[in-house]
Amino acid sequence: MFKQILVPVDGSEDAWVALSQAIEIAQEEESTIQALFVADSRIIEAPYWTAAPPDEPLPTGDENKVELALTIGEMIAGFGEKALAEAKRRCEEAQVVCETSYEVGAVVNVILEKAEHVDLVVLGRHGQGAIYAGPHLGSVFEAVVRHAPCPVLATQAEVRPIRKVLVAYDGSDRAKDALYIGARLAQAQSRDLVLLVVNDGRPGRLNVFAEAKDWLEKHGVPAKYRYEEGEPAETILEVAREEDVSLIIIGAFGHSRFLEIFFGSTVDEVVHQAIAPVMICH
Q: What's the predicted TM-score (pTM) here?
């Protein structure tokens, strides 16, 4: 299911939490972890742009700014090499295969490009200097969650072993992916599975509930079934707390396609407020 797992690392504590969560999954799935460090080209190249416009030659006397840019690049490279070496060490200690990659470029673009070739991205919500998220979804974190071509696991501030899984199901194609992943994870280690369908006033919610229940029973996956009325995000968060789940799995958007572009408010709120890691399926 998750044969290739991408983990961006930057030396921050959140990145190591993300790596630990990825290792747990990799041990079950016999996955290869791809540890990625991205040197932000904007930081490295900044002294060049202050020295001269991009299309003009450097003026005389600005060699010190060029030297500064080279020094910054070397410092970041050294930091990246250490972060990748530590990621590889932790994976090898857990007997998980790890491949490392150091890239220079726009952070979002590089992560999304790498995500084209993996089955899962595991991402810490904060990085060095809050690069991945701030009080609101940060530009890198938000862009990866919104645009990644594969599921994204947003981790918490500390490692939480996956013991109980909550699948929020609304009948959409992405929710069906979430149901499949939740069932596989539950079966892999005999984990508890909770299926939640929220009746938010839309027609056919009972049919959606019956559809998911029938699918799980057909595939022999034991589950606890919750059919609740209320606002989707609030209900998902409340049930997650009540059931003390250690992973929430949700579709990136429901039946309304515009949510793919504008990032569904339900997913947004759940990612922000959940006490457990959240896996968003695309």
A: 0.85
